[in-house]
Amino acid sequence: MVEDEAIIALAIQDMLEQLGCMAVGPALTLQAGKQLAAVEEIDAAVLDINLSGDSSHAVAQTLRDRVIPFCFSTGYGSADVPRDFVDVPVLKKPYTCESLAAVLAQLLS
């Protein structure tokens, strides 16, 4: 999980645990996200698109290179998704445990 807002990251971590998932992260910065994406064993990832003014594009590319499914989360809608990743599912913030579960099921199917 890559999310720059600590309170939101904790909420997402709680949701993931409610769903029976083990959260990797959270990574609160682009650099931390790139590190997690490059070395951790990950089944699927949730990436905030905007990380304190930086784009999570590099994290997404690392995950794609490793063939790890991921989704973006954003409060700005699909227009914020980088052109190279228009096929990636988007969770619109704020999202619920149910919508997170649905996108994770899609990613892991």
Q: For the report, how would you describe the main beta sheet?
A: 3 strands, parallel
Percent strand equals 5-15%
* CATH homologous superfamily heading: Response regulator
Distance between the termini: 19 Å
Order of helices and strands: HHEEEHEEH
What is the 3D form?
Answer: globular
Architecture overview:
With 109 residues, the protein is α/β, with parallel strands linked by helices. The protein has one domain: Rossmann fold (3-Layer(aba) Sandwich), CATH 3.40.50.2300. It has helices at residues 6-18, 30-39, 57-65, 97-108, and strands at residues 45-48, 50-51, 54-55, 70-74, 90-92. The strands form two sheets. A three-stranded parallel β-sheet has the order 1-4-5, with helices on both faces. The chain has a two-stranded antiparallel ribbon with strand order 2-3. β2 (50-51) and β3 (54-55) form a beta hairpin.
Task: Furnish the topology, listing elements before pairings.
Elements (H helix, E strand, L loop, with lengths): L5 H13 L11 H10 L5 E4 L1 E2 L2 E2 L1 H9 L4 E5 L15 E3 L4 H12 L1
Helix pairs in contact: 2-3
Give me a quick take on this structure.
With 109 residues, the chain is an alpha/beta fold. Helix content is 40%, strand content 15%. It has helices at residues 6-18, 30-39, 57-65, 97-108, and strands spanning 45-48, 50-51, 54-55, 70-74, 90-92.
